[in-house]
Amino acid sequence: MKNKDYIEQMNNIHASEDLIQKTIKSISNIEHQKRGYNFKKFIAGTAAALTLTAGSVGAYKAITGNSIMSLFGLGKASINYENQSIKVSDKFNTVIENEYTRIELDKIACDKTFLILEYNVKIKDRGDKNNYNDLSETYKHSKAETEYDYSQGGKSENLGLSEMINVNGKYLNCYTCFAQKIDGKENEYKLYDIIDLMDIDNYTDIRASITILSVICEGEQFFVTNENNNYLINLNITQDDNNQKNIEEHEVNNVKVGVKNVMNTSFATYVTIGVKVSNISSENCLNNIDFESTDSNNNKIESNVFLNKYIVRTKDGYVYDVINDNENYKETDYHKAMYLLNSKNKEQARNKVNFNTDFENADVEMEYVIVYPEAMNDQDTIKCKMYRNDNVVIEDMVFDISKEKQTNTSVSSIELINYTDKKSNDFIISNEKNNKEINKNYNPDAEKIDLYRFPICGISIGMSENDAINELNNYYKKSGFSIQCENYYNDGWYDDGNLSFGVTDGHVSSINVVECKKVMNEKVNINDLIKTYYSEEYLIRDIEHDSQNTIATLYGSEDFFGNRTDSDTSFGYVNLDGAGRITMACYVEGRYRLILSADPATGIVENIQIFML
Amino acid sequence: MKQKKVEKVVRKYADLVYRVAFSMLRNKDDAEDIFQDVFIKLCTENVKFLSKEHEKAWIIRVTKNKCLDFLKKSCNKTKAELNDNIKVEEKEDDSDVIKHVQSLPEKYRIVIYLFYYEGYKISEMSKILDINESTLKSQLVKARELLKEKIGEEF
């Protein structure tokens, strides 16, 4: 039988090492770009804009017109932004500065869709860019969100801020950021943060807290001071609700698309397309959606899929992910794509939506009329309509910027989550409270996506609706206060866990004892902390507690999860953040515990969060 | 996806992707292009899988689809199918059998590969390739017949 010969000969066909290496490098480069530019909310349909924006600083220079804001979407939004933005640096001291960076919040603009912050950023001291270790020591940075491998070179030339954004009590981890080098000035940039407010309930009263944690420039991370790095922005917005909702809907096979919303704001006209996919299976998922808008004369209207929103959020949170992530969303979920439409007096628009599943393509055309509000009937009118005067009354100090010193954090409850792999195909998630284990299958109805959220500590647990996947994210991710533990598969294959924390203050030895209360009646003393090779990691030694599982010695590791196969070894590390908070992690008897502490002054940890694996 | 995981994934499925692509395209350079595309898609689109088998099936299907796209775009398909005696890229240890399999039309090559080399059942192949089982069975029979003609004995 010749098929055995075939198998033998096929065994001799291999992908070359060179090809493997090239592929790994290509993927790595793409990942770096994705992370660096924060363009995760764009889908493939915005590829052109993405390329332009993410190309290089040189590409920015080629753009003429108002500013890089034109890249934000279209000319109209750019013009409106220029007209409506409020220069705040004249009225307030908005400078955050240390020996490495200088950040100034220069302008603010806001409508009911976006809050736009314009910064002037200067990198003052680059240090030795070519030496990873020196860089690490100099800037005391963590591995940061990207775990950027400085030794690999290929630094991107972008600029971004690591920041924590809270608007009306809601932490937003999806935003878009554009940067542009200022002509003729070395290491000085204009940077625009575009914060999506459309998930905010009360857009008329915006209370935003922006905490700047670091500047990431050309692959390097420059931490700002941990004090006075917070802007509080209060904005009152009065704007008529000119939305047109649920205009039209079409269904083709298992995909339903519809114009959900047409919204006129001070910046632009936005059209929201809802996409609902039912009967999802691994073989039948939506792969891509393209949009095109035309006017009633069939002329193409300049438009761009600017923003994609969705009900089910993934950790990366962009619709392209969700579409492909067919196990992770329910039939009832709507995925929304936000259009930014540059229509000049167009009263009628036609949307052509093309989407494809694994097996077929479908075109859907939707026609709808955009009803402009009277005052915004004409683009010139819109241009002249000063958002600043109409909606933000600076004189009455409704608009306010101030800085707030960072305060200590606290956690309001104790939760323990136990992930066990008891079934072959599913992870079972158990909850333990008060040392009493309650095993139960993960119930997506009862425990929604954000199962436990302690954003104030910078940590949350994102629970996908797929039992086999869980993830931990935290809101300090971009600062280097990074905890990730994601994509655990039933075969033990997993993403490398990443537990790296940010700025250390170098006073580790001054904290000898950390007493943990309310941790399942355990008392944990850390008697000695020894700094490891990496500045952000520490060994924990001689930990005592009164539970039955006494830990004698914990060994540190540069990669917490990388060594977890050695189940006989307990190891872990502790870390201090910039505010002196202690974070301790240890791996005990096959389980991983993470203990967060809050108050370095007393050493008492009042609130603890523990994760167990 | 982190660097280590990327490396892990690429190494884990490198030969699979390469062999599927090579089986379909019969050309090393083209297979290498597809190879990169598949892993870029896998690693940058954050696709989640229920199991290893699910993942493997996804990879095979994406590889196949990308090969088909490639063939359509480059018109290679037409050229290849018009000429069953197209010269298959030689490898050092290449011998008659693999060459004969590679000289089959594309739809038979992938079926032979998955059935004999990867050991998939017809029902599994049906899901992966999105081809119904009876069609697959007849393709397999036809492929065997063609090979028998070429090789001179049962495959």
3D structure, described in words:
The complex is a heterodimer of chains A (613) and B (155). Chain A is built from 10 helices and 36 strands. The radius of gyration of chain A is 26 Å and the shape is flat. The C terminus of chain A is likely disordered. Chain B has one domain: PhyR, sigma-like (SL) domain (Butyryl-CoA Dehydrogenase, subunit A, domain 3, Up-down Bundle). In chain B, helix 1 crosses helix 6 and helix 2 packs across helix 3. The relative contact order of chain B is 0.11. About 12% of the residues of chain B have low confidence. Chains A and B meet through helix 1, helix 2 and helix 8 of A and helix 1, helix 2, helix 3, helix 5 and helix 6 of B.
Helix share bin of chain B: over 70%
Named at the architecture level, the CATH assignment of chain B is: Up-down Bundle
Annotated CATH topology of chain B: Butyryl-CoA Dehydrogenase, subunit A, domain 3
CATH level-3 fold name of the largest domain in chain A: Immunoglobulin-like
Identify the biggest protein-protein contact and residues per side.
Answer: A-B, 51 and 54 residues
The total number of structural domains of chain B is 1
Query: Which overall shape of chain B is indicated by the principal axes computed on the Cα atoms?
Result: globular
How would a textbook summarize the main sheet of chain A?
6 strands, antiparallel
CATH architecture designation of the largest domain in chain A: Sandwich
Helix percent band of chain A = 10-25%
Number of strands of chain B: 0
Mean pLDDT of chain A: 47
Termini separation of chain A comes to 50 Å
